[in-house]
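Dear colleague,

As promised, here are the two records you asked about, laid out in our usual form so they can be pasted straight into your sheet.

NAME FIELD: protein one
SEQUENCE, THEN STRUCTURE:
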Amino acid sequence: MKKYTSILSVILFFFIHSNSWAQPAESFVKVNVAPEKTDWVYKPNEKVKFAVSITKNDIELPNVAVRYEVGPEMMSPVKTENVVLKNGTTVIDGGTLKEAGFLRCRVVASYEGKEYSGLATAAFSPDAIQSTTNEPEDFWTFWQKAKAEASKIPLDARVRLLPDRCTEKVNVYEVNIQNYKPGTRLFGIVCVPKAPGKYPALLHVPGAGVRGYYGDVNTAEKGVITLQIGIHGVPVTLDASVYNNLSAGALDGYPNYNLDDKDRYYYKRVYLGCVRAVDFIFNLPEFDGNNIVVMGGSQGGALSIVTAALDNRIKGLVAFYPALCDLTGYLHGRAGGWPHLFSASNLSFNNTSQKIETSKYYDIVNFARHLNVPGFYSWGYNDVTCPPTSMYAAYNVITAPKTLFLAEETGHWTYPEQWEKAYDFALKLLKK
């Protein structure tokens, strides 16, 4: 019972403080779409059919007009049609793919003047998907040099107790450390158990966007130091209006900043900041000096892989639907990872040789090649933010121990069962 309560409190923490990971709200009318094979997996050239039903109150609606489109995920559809479902159901012939990848069927139903949509994505030999990016010859040298230079910068750690967030068992602080060069700062929330002793640590790396953070108090109450960081050099305890203004202003489109220069690209400060966060944890007197795991989703899933690859002090990682994977996919006629740097809408300003080359130094595929620690990974086939093609391109190059928990029907969100398995994995590595 104690373990069950612990897991529920952790899940509640993430549902409250990370809305991009929460399951979407239920719809009045449901558009149900699914491949006919129960595992959603096909072989190249094997025909796929999508079963469709339109329901209200779990009862099929008659005479509903729908339009549907079928094609490789994130690409232009190869088949579109408008039909009326007399009995509320139909089966769509989706065709096939000739090679490994994902084929998506999207259905939009019109009912009483409002549109409702649903989609499903069939996998074609996903374990055979290969990356389109390549690793530059100096990739590892570039990052080792960057780490070495950053390590010379004093941490200059400043902590501020947040009394209103402390509990009977945990002290909560805002932390502010110097990042990869003098004057740059990294902010976060660290939660430390009050009882004397040495504790393992869990580093939370953030999803995309600009926001404040509360800190993972629940896990800290179970005897684990937790550090939740931001990436933008902005305090993480400000009023929400500040982050909204930054999102709409100075930090709007930050994943594109300085993409034409690998030494100045925005994510250099981010990747090195994750390593600096590990430095901070290792300087905490309450840390046990050994057991540390990194965890995140989306952009945070990418940063989990980066941190574990760059820092051999990390003992394991959890990555939900990692972003920044196989960024050049769009240049090869298939989906690339978030932030879709080379998609059709971004080609007009990103399709240059310099920007393409810079992307290779930050592509998660190339960090995944260097992983040496066990990892837990989880995603769904219906993700339209981090396409599964891109995630498999990274996952398939990992030679370290790896566990993939699929929730096929999910998009860019998670079920509680995914979090349960992720925390079981992490806490086992932390010996909790």
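NAME FIELD: protein two
SEQUENCE, THEN STRUCTURE:
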Amino acid sequence: MSKYFEYFPKVTYRDMSVTDITRRVKIKDDLLADPYAFLPYTVKENERAEDVAYYYYGDQGKVWMVYLANNIIDPYTQWPMSNENVAKTIAKKYKTQSGQTTDDAVIFWSMSTNTSNNIVHYVNNADPTIFVSKDTYTYNPSFISSEWTAVRVYDYEMQLNEDRRNIYLINVAYANQVERDLEAVLNV
């Protein structure tokens, strides 16, 4: 993350000087309110945050700006994965719940319409922003089945990953200001 951690103060831990990585920074409110400060960007398949930083800022060391603009703390779980890695994550995450022994069997289970234990929630067909839990749908007789669609594990996890692809970048015209703000806040 290049210069990012250079701005963090040093602390003494076990008689050694180390970077205090427990600090958390955020973008200043006035910049958040500026309609020109952020630009939408869609992360491509297999594109890393370092690639985006290099492409947009001309410096992969400014990857921290990409993370900061999107409030990403853990890039391993909050950055979009390749479809292959999403499948691996599903296989690992749902192995116990599925009762399957191989990754391929877990993936098959996660998509299967022949079981209900892979349903995450139900979504309303007329308004996809309305969803209800599996239990609410199951135990409420007023729901009409033709008005709702089951969202299964595979589709749910894939959609979460697709949603992560829509990020914002700090406008390059504001990059130096953000870097100066970071230095001012952390160099106490």
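A couple of things worth noting about protein two: The mean pLDDT is 92. DSSP finds ten helices and seven strands in the chain.

Best,
R.
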